[in-house]
Amino acid sequence: MFQLDNVPFFAKGVACEDVVSAKDVDGELRFQKVVRPSGHATLRLIVHDEEDVPSVKELLEKHGCAVERSHVPGLISVDVPPTVPLDSLKPLLDEGEDEERWGYEEACLP
Question: Is 70:6 a contact under the CB 8 Å cutoff?
Answer without folding.
Answer: no
